[in-house]
Design brief:
Elements (H helix, E strand, L loop, with lengths): L15 E5 L2 H11 L9 H12 L3 H4 L6 H4 L1 H7 L13 E6 L4 E5 L1 H9 L13 H17 L9 E7 L4 E10 L3 E5 L8 H8 L5 H7 L5 E5 L1 E7 L1 H14 L6 H13 L5 E8 L7 E8 L8 E3 H4 L2 H9 L4 E3 L2 H8 L3 H8 L4 E8 L5 E9 L17 H26 L5 H19 L11 E14 L2 H30 L3 H19 L5 H20 L4 H12 L11 H27 L6 E7 L1 E8 L11 H25 L9 E7 L4 E6 L4 E5 L1 H12 L17 E6 L2 H16 L3 E8 L10 E7 L13 H7 L1
Parallel strand pairs: 1-7, 18-21
Antiparallel strand pairs: 2-3, 2-8, 4-5, 5-8, 6-7, 9-10, 9-14, 10-11, 12-13, 13-14, 15-17, 15-18, 15-19, 16-17, 19-20, 21-23, 22-23
Amino acid sequence: MTIRSFHDNIDLELPLHINISFKKVYDVYKKYAAKEFENHPYHQSALNMVKEIEKVPELISGFSDFSLLNKHEELIEILLDTLFPEILTTNEIKAATIPFSFTCFKFTERFDNILNNAGDDYEFKVRNFEQDAMYIYACTLILSSIYNYHVDLKRPFYFDIPDKISDFTKHYRVAFNGDFMDITPTENAPKITEDDIKLLLDNFDNIEIWKEKFPPNSYTFKGFGIMNLFDVTADETITSIRDNLVRKEDQSMTEKLRDNLRDFYVIKDLKVGYSVFDISNISHGSVRVKRSESILLNQETQITCNEYFCNHLISKIFRENESIVISDTKNYKDLSGGNKFSKNLEDREIGSIILIPIKNSTSQDLVLIEIASPRAYELNSVNKQKLKDIIPVFQAAAERNSEEYMNILEATIQEYYTSIHPAVKWRFYEAAENYQNALLDQEEDAKIEKITFNDVYPLYGQSDIKGSSHARNLAIKQDLTKQLKSAIHVLRKACLKENLPIYDELMYRVEDYLVEVEKGMKAGDEVAILDFLKRDIYPVFNHIKEINNELTQVVNDYLGLLDNNLQVVYEKRKDYENSVTKLNDKLAKFIDKKQEEAQKIFPHYFERYKTDGVEYNLYIGQSITKEKKYDPLYLYNLRLWQLQTTYEMENVAYNLRKDLDHDLRVASLILVHSNPLAIEFRMDEKQFDVDGAYNIRYEIIKKRIDKAHIKGTTERLTTPGKIAIVYSQDKDAQEYLKYIKYLQSKNQLGEVEILELEDLQGVSGLKAIRVEVNYNEEVNSKSYLSIDELIKKI
């Protein structure tokens, strides 16, 4: 008799002392051996079996020496024949077992064949076997059998058994029959009380408590078990597909699905791919490939349907969204006239293929799943029906992935276009949740509430590129001068070949514009000149090109100077704008990184803009956050952080000058405002703005302060090499002078000026501290103090 045991371990610790007994089977034979059944067909055979079994009394009383299974193999085989009928032996996957250990000692022929096909190196083991869990399961069996207290701990067990013939692993679920067993307590079995049961139910994970109430071998088990296996490979494949699709999409997803479907179809070289099409333009006969891991497409991004597919595929897949199977691709090529799709099938050596279209319900996307075999008719209209249980899983996954993708797009838009700062996002979620709850409660006139933060203190700063308007105008002047001179050169060359008065007249007009440009640009000059060139000069150039090859080259040289998109000379302006962009990006990235550090001081709202330079707003106060208690100390910390960061940005801009095509300088400004104000999110503008008439004054100051002059002079407050700190209350000046004094001790700031400013329209009484910046060419981010270090030192 072949005995196969789980992990070769039949000495599993249990609360039960296992005795193999066939008494339950013996009792059935005994019943039919009685005189009342003497006319029954089983009577005589039952008499013979009773006689033989009684010769070996341990088969009835039970034995724990499992070697007796081999000793009495012949009798046990006959004894169990009624449970293992020959007519079912090639159909059922069944074995007699020693309970709780998965040790088996009699198998049906089909089960034997499965194990033999698994190979000599296969270890007969259960997928989800846990020794402690098996001990507790035995305890619950005792509770049910002895104390009539039923605890449901049933959970399926599985065998994963390879098949060397097909080279696939098959999966089997295990079912147990416990009709052939009895459990009795020994003298050492503790009495289980109601309180014990409650304690056990609350302590599943504490194996020591279970062993205390049910000591090892404290009960006797007599009997045996019957284990049935059911092939659930298809169900496991569907489950595995579902699990893989539920996980976040990654590069291995297609590979995992391919392995699942290979198992499902038992085709080792099955190919699987997919493509995502935008079919919004299908009415015009084309589709766009959005994403692809296709086994059919090459690098196509736009497909003209009637050139690529046949009409039948276009209709079924893209319009009716029905699955298609091509069981013989060679035959399809002949019938379709050899379209591009059929040629791709041939190039990929595909003999048969199933195409599954999945239309997204909320968008114009269609996912086309491709399942292909190298052999004709291996995939066909019959075995396509197996996919009926899988297609809904694909559909659900496609919907979920589409929603997740849309969420990613929304997040991208939020981050780069209409972002809501993380510090205040909680308030938007709160408002949105309140609104949705109102809709669910069917409240009349449910409205989204306004987002307002009261009693917040503002901090404003800017690093503005000085002389940007002059530099831009100069660049425009240089480009226009070059373009006009080049146009004159073309006309002069043309005069040498054709003595036409029109050339002289046009040269005169171009030279007149050139004189005006060199004198100085005025508003509208650039547009007027470009309009003149397009209207009067370029049609003549088209004629000049036709005169001879030499003039053709001259005109082409002129056109080669022009920007392809703008059709103007765009060299100096491009250099200037690239310099501005490079400086802006550098400053913006720097303050964004520093802002991450500042958020650790206290959560606050931060917004930053790129203009000709960088400007930013900060708002801090209790209403901004629910997580931390506000204290004025945090405002002072942020002001110190702002001054330190402004100094660092000055150095960033100064050290970048050598890498710019234009020598750009920045002038830095900080505006101090001591009174709290309110900010409100403007729904129409999708941004925060100050709220209330009094607070508008703060916004007016922000817009006009960088143009302010020092009182009694024509000198601008903001100037390169100095940081201007604008204030209206002397106590603010005293605060900032302390910060400046410390940074002076670090040789970061120099000479200080206390200034009065001219009255602005609607604003008077402003003052300023202007402090010199000591640049450090060797400075880097590590040389700056963190805000914690700065506060500690000051």
